[in-house]
């Protein structure tokens, strides 16, 4: 599935509400961030705590332009938690951390406007 990072791209084809419900997007808190020198495109490895039901998961995130490693722990993010894990070089990315492109296509993380309990599901 190809996702466009171009803000001028047309809307995706219409889907049913059940299709949206099939995508499990949860909020979690980044508990650790690590360098990922083996990544083909610059990325950090995030460890994200999604609360007791889902637990801690790892994600490779191409967010190096806007976020320094030391500012990431404690930040809440949104992620798709029900995709199959992806092998990215030596690491298994277990969740897809979500973001929007800025005017140059660099990723800006999605986060709730106020603190919320980890593990909450987007609706």
What does this molecule look like?
By secondary structure, this protein is mostly beta strands. The strands form three sheets. Strands 3-2-1-4-7 form a five-stranded antiparallel beta sheet, with no helix packed on it. The protein has a two-stranded antiparallel ribbon with strand order 5-6. Helices cover 5% and strands 34% of the residues. It has a single domain, classed as Beta Barrel (OB fold (Dihydrolipoamide Acetyltransferase, E2P)), CATH 2.40.50.140. The model has no long low-confidence stretch (mean pLDDT 93).
The CATH architecture is Beta Barrel
Tally of DSSP β-strands: 9
CATH topology assignment: OB fold (Dihydrolipoamide Acetyltransferase, E2P)
Strand order of the largest sheet: 3-2-1-4-7
Distance between the termini: 22 Å
Helix fraction, binned, reads: under 10%
Measured on Cα atoms, how large is the radius of gyration?
15 Å
- Most strands sheet: 5 strands, antiparallel
What is the averaged pLDDT score? Answer: 93
How many structural domains? 1
Quick take:
This protein is mainly β and 123 residues long.
Kindly list the characteristics that best describe this protein.
123 residues, mainly beta, two-stranded antiparallel ribbon, 9 strands, 5% helix
Map the helices and strands.
Elements: H1 17-22, E1 25-35, E2 44-49, E3 56-61, E4 76-80, E5 86-88, E6 91-93, E7 96-97, E8 99-101, E9 107-109
Antiparallel strand pairs: 1-2, 1-4, 2-3, 4-7, 5-6, 8-9
């Amino acid at each position: 599935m190809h996702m466009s990072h171009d803000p001028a791209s047309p809307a995706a084809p219409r889907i049913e509400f059940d299709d949206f419900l099939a995508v499990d997007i949860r909020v979690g808190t980044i508990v650790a961030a690590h360098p990922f020198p083996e990544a083909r495109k610059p990325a950090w490895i995030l460890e994200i705590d999604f609360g007791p039901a889902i637990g801690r998961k790892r994600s490779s995130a191409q967010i190096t332009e806007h976020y320094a490693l030391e500012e990431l722990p404690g930040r809440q993010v949104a992620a798709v938690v029900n995709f199959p894990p992806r092998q990215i070089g030596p690491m298994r990315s277990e969740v897809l951390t979500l973001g929007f492109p800025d005017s140059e296509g660099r990723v800006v993380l999605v986060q709730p406007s106020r603190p919320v309990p980890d593990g909450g599901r987007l609706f």
